[in-house]
TrEMBL record:
Stored CDD domains: ThrRS_anticodon
Protein name per UniProt: Threonine--tRNA ligase
Catalyzed chemical reaction(s): tRNA(Thr) + L-threonine + ATP = L-threonyl-tRNA(Thr) + AMP + diphosphate + H(+)
Gene: thrS
Keyword tRNA-binding: yes
Lineage: Archaea, Thermoproteota, Thermoprotei, Desulfurococcales, Desulfurococcaceae
């Protein structure tokens, strides 16, 4: 906050015209004061009530020293190039006036957001012209959110985390140790990082650290997960609209600013044309900005809005982890609009079941952290218990004071990864604040406007975190002595055909073309390498089905198929292989091959494997 303080024998102003849309009601058109300390005030980015308190102390001190009869707080945007958003500046100027009135009388404030002409006669003594820059220091106190933790079991029993028997629930113990007791978990070499790099997921060294790049294999996997996230959402049984939007929002917009403050300090900010913008950290801003313009009837609810949003979070450098914690990632973000808390609860049960079903498809289960407000915990214990019964597993509940966040319940779904650490993948939350903040309304049965209650969810998590869960599942396989692999639907190359020699290339091509015509990703290893080398290379790429063709296969019109998951080799006809592929990929998306079909054409890509 910048202050220019002038002790004036006379000061007067007159309103001329509105300067900004956020201008407050002017009240008096003019004012004239004598023996007044005029406080020309600029509110800057980062200013808060702590800054206001410091400014009050400075102003009162100077008023007493110059023996002024009056104080006039005069909004003046010309003392800084780093202006706070108008709504925040206005709020803090009002606070400044109120806090000054608590200390002294004769306090006035010129209206915010207007062009004004003024006349000033300065006394001219040594203290009549002073300037102050009020800045935040290390004394600023961040709000410490005190949480109370309990374990809630499916039979409705509550336990202190210190007294719970974890013998049957080792995954829950890992989560509790981290979240409640702050135990330093053992860690170790995370095989997922090796797998990510193997398949072409890596940091981009020419960018801000935490931004990833994707080679052809990684790009195929990314696109498949994006397509699948849309399939998952459409399968919920409710109407869903898919949208697209921008990733940059103006912090001068009050709802954007307020939502950003609630999110925290992991924001990417940039200045453009003397205005501050924030890069979105989820799809909320865009979808809410759209939805406030929609005309919605109670008959339309519930319905969802979906976007795969490129999202940005300024994570701490030491916390960055490939495919799990990145500074730019892709969020398949679904927001479901509902009429009230009861409808949100019923709809969220559908979402909860879908979240659990999706993780079970890859052979995993979640351990859950339920963040709930104190009023929700006390008043809606029956809802909370129904969620936990659906989990069929005890959950950790963190009870926080009411009125801090926009949600009343925020559920984090964690896997325990291959190095024994909880990793949040999926989530849902019930939001009772942003309907009002963004003015998203519907017309109820009585033709009255009501604000919606919103469910936020990422059913499979971010695209990258879902991929992390897939690779982590492979890491668990390897740790238990099994062959690590990916599900067939998401394996970049689903089938590789290897002719024993060039004499059998025509048959290999015929087989590959037939498999490709059914929508599967197939390639041909036509390199001048030994058969053993080519089979080993296919293994390093985790290809689910490797087809070797030679003289016997050509004569019998069969295939010699090596199956990675089972570690077996079978003779089958092409129709059998295609049926296996169809069964293993049913309900999942398909995409083209992002590489040349012939391995001899893939210059420079073999380094990955």
């Amino acid at each position: 906050m910048k202050l220019l303080l002038i002790h004036a024998s006379k000061f007067s102003y007159r309103i001329v015209s509105r300067a900004i849309d956020e201008a407050e009601e002017a009240g008096k058109d003019s004012l004239e004061l004598e023996n007044v300390l005029v406080v020309f005030t600029t509110v800057e980015n980062g200013d808060n009530e702590y800054i206001v308190d410091k400014a009050v102390s400075e102003i009162i001190d100077i008023k007493n020293r110059v023996k002024a009869n009056n104080i006039l707080v005069y909004p003046y945007a010309h003392l800084s190039n780093d202006l706070a958003p108008p709504h925040l500046a206005r709020e803090l100027l009002i606070k400044l006036e109120e806090k000054l009135l608590e200390k002294t009388s004769g306090v006035f404030r010129a209206p915010f957001g207007w062009y004004k002409e003024f006349k000033l006669e300065c006394y001219g003594h040594p203290l009549s012209e002073l300037s102050r820059s009020i800045r935040e220091t290390g004394e600023v106190q961040r709000r410490e959110i005190k949480k109370k933790f309990v374990i809630l079991t499916p039979d409705g029993e509550l336990y202190d985390p210190s007294n719970f028997d974890y013998s049957k629930y080792p995954d829950l113990k890992v989560l509790v140790d981290k979240e409640v007791f702050g135990v330093e978990l053992p860690g170790g070499v995370n095989r997922v990082n090796d797998y990510c790099i193997k398949f072409g997921f890596d940091w981009e060294p020419m960018s801000d650290h935490g931004h990833m790049r994707y080679g052809p294999h990684a790009a195929m996997i990314m696109d498949l997960v994006m397509k699948y996230s849309w399939i998952v959402v459409k399968d919920l049984g409710i109407t869903v609209y898919r949208v697209m939007g921008t990733n940059m929002f103006n912090l001068n917009e009050k709802p954007v600013y307020e939502h950003a403050v609630l999110f925290g300090d992991r924001l990417y900010e940039l200045n453009v044309d003397n205005e501050r913008f924030v890069l979105r950290y989820a799809a909320c801003h865009q979808q809410f900005a759209m939805l406030r313009d929609w005309v919605i009837s109670y008959r339309d609810l519930p319905f969802g809005v979906f976007e795969i949003a490129d999202s940005y979070r300024l994570e701490q450098r030491g916390e960055l982890n490939l495919c799990y914690r990145a500074r730019k990632f892709y969020m398949p973000d679904l927001h479901v609009l509902t009429k009230n808390l009861d409808e949100a609860f019923k709809t969220s049960l559908i979402i909860q079941k879908k979240i659990m079903d999706e993780i079970s498809k890859i052979g995993r289960r979640y351990v859950a952290l339920y963040n709930v407000t104190e009023d929700f915990f006390n008043e809606h214990r029956d809802m909370l218990l129904e969620y936990v019964r659906n989990e069929n597993y005890p959950v950790l509940v963190a009870i926080i004071p009411s009125g801090i966040y926009y949600w009343v319940i925020n559920v984090e779904y964690h896997i325990i990864d291959n190095i024994g650490r909880p990793r949040e993948i999926a989530t849902f939350q019930i939001d009772v604040g942003n309907g009002k903040r963004f003015n998203i309304t519907y017309i109820d049965e009585n033709n009255e406007k009501k604000h919606v209650v919103i469910i936020h969810t990422a059913i499979i998590g971010s695209v990258e975190r879902f991929i992390y869960a897939l690779f982590d599942t492979a890491a668990h396989m390897e740790k238990s002595g099994r062959t690590p692999c990916l599900p067939t639907w998401i394996s970049p190359i689903q089938v590789r055909v290897i002719p024993v020699s060039s004499s059998y290339m025509d048959y290999a091509i015929k087989i590959a073309e037939e498999i490709s015509s059914r929508g599967f990703r197939v390639d041909i290893d036509d390199r001048d390498e030994s058969l053993g080398r080519r089979i080993r290379d296919a293994g390093r790429e985790w290809i689910p089905y490797v087809v070797v063709v030679g003289e016997r296969e050509v004569k019998t019109e069969t295939l010699n198929v090596r199956i990675r998951r089972d570690g077996v080799q079978k003779i089958m006809i092409l129709k059998e292989l295609i049926e296996i592929l169809e069964n293993e990929t049913k309900g999942y998306p398909k995409t083209d091959l992002y590489l040349p079909v012939f391995l001899s054409k893939r210059t420079g890509l073999n380094y990955m494997f």
